Amino acid sequence: MISFDIFNGKGSMPLYIFTYLEVFLLFSLAFFIIKAKQPSGNKQFTPLLNVPMFLIITGIVFRITLFPAAPTTSPDVYRYIWEGKIVTHGINPYQVPPNAQQLNQYHSSVWEKVGFKNMTSIYPPFAQFTFLLGFLLSGDSVWGLKIVYLFCEIITMIFLLKLLKLKGKNPDYLILYAWLPIPVMEYFINTHIDAAGIAFFILFLYYIEKGNYKISAIFYAVSFLVKFYPIILFPLLFKKIGIKKLIPFTLIFLIITICCYVPFLTSDLAIKNTLATYLTRWEFNGSAFNLFKAIFNQNLARILCGFSLVIAIAAISFRYKDFINGTFGILLSYVIFATTLYPWYLGWIASINPVINFYSVFSLLFTSNFSNFTPLGKVWQEYWWVLIIEYIPFYILLYTDLKSKYLQKKFNLSSS
């Protein structure tokens, strides 16, 4: 990682792709060494001496070494800093786009790097608070956000470890997140906001598994207010906590959400404008979506993916027996039917893969790196060979993962 800081300069995408490949191979070797030492049969896990603590400490070190790294595969962090900057001046990022003349006085080198200057913000209110905090810490520099993310990632690793122990899983499998290149590189080189959302997401999962539904509702709301993904898990709650307890859970969620949105509300509901554009027009690296688009057309492909995701969520919400498994199933369905799937989006499902341990997800976390070839060309375009490299191994391994889980359930075998 230190060598990446030295040679990356202002951002070398080929170096990023190569470094990710190299680091992932080393990470994989470490994981399979740990896996080879796990007990077999129904024996209880006896973790290697202090391995979980070692993983957390080294995971923190890996992230800190990337503080000097320049954003490389995505300029999103400059949008974050810009929005944090204008929020400090009392300007609504949902109403005023970066290219508005009234913002000329705030222009700096950061403004020049902001993409889609004609578009207002798509990020929810707690994300705006995170941007604000990052800007207050370091101004136009990215290290302020990285400090916030480091704190979030420490929370994620600690509570993921607690969740592994709660579910009776091998705590050494924390390596599947602590050392995973996606959170390390995407959240501390490219500085994506997902790190904050994932921390509250893991807190939500831990406390709902502990049966503390009111506390879990708070973390669920905050995670949703960083990025909207957790909303697709709401149908799971009907079966998990029941209608009676779901009422106060929902009230807590709504109160927090409304309170966070109120400062940004305008009479024309400007907050919805750019988000609608993103949901209806953005597309990148989707598997089922690209297949449907090749057979039909773009609009029909979006409809089919949306419909398929709704059906998958409904089926999983009705049939699941374990809440974490149900959560994983819905996130996996999102990965399959998403119209837009940047590598850093995978951090959400990666955060609970240590509990489930699907090799298909492990594979996609590796091959998603090849999607970074898209912006390398003279014209932004997706390559079919990249999609094939990403998704053929993923779907083959998904079949074997599902078959393995079915056999474990059928014959009452232990799973890791």
Largest sheet: none
Number of extended strands: 0
Shape: globular
β content, as a range? under 5%
Which structural class fits the helix and strand makeup? mainly alpha
Low-confidence stretches: none
Termini distance? 30 Å
Give Rg in angstroms: 21 Å
Report the helical percentage: 55-70%
Overall pLDDT score? 92
| Total number of helices | 20
Report the order of strands and helices. HHHHHHHHHHHHHHHHHHHH
Attribute tags:
20 helices; 416 residues; 0% strand; mainly alpha
SSE order and pairing:
Blueprint: H1 2-8, H2 13-36, H3 51-65, H4 76-88, H5 109-113, H6 125-138, H7 143-166, H8 175-178, H9 181-188, H10 194-209, H11 213-224, H12 236-261, H13 273-281, H14 288-295, H15 298-319, H16 323-337, H17 347-350, H18 353-356, H19 359-367, H20 384-410
Helix pairs in contact: 3-7, 4-6, 6-7, 7-10, 10-11, 11-12, 12-15, 14-15, 15-16, 19-20
Could you walk me through the main structural features you see in this protein, from its secondary elements to its overall organization?
It is built from 20 helices and no strands. It starts with a helix and ends in a 6-residue tail after the last helix. It is mainly α and 416 residues long. It has a domain at 270-416.
Write a compact overview of the structure shown:
The protein is mostly helical and 416 residues long. The protein is built from 20 helices and no strands.
